Amino acid sequence: AQSVTQLDSHVSVSEGTPVLLRCNYSSSYSPSLFWYVQHPNKGLQLLLKYTSAATLVKGINGFEAEFKKSETSFHLTKPSAHMSDAAEYFCVVSEAGSDQLTFGKGTKLSVIP
Amino acid sequence: DAGITQSPRHKVTETGTPVTLRCHQTENHRYMYWYRQDPGHGLRLIHYSYGVKDTDKGEVSDGYSVSRSKTEDFLLTLESATSSQTSVYFCAISPGVDTQYFGPGTRLTVL
Question: Among B41, B90, B96, whose Cβ lies nearest the Cβ of A44?
Answer without folding.
Answer: B90
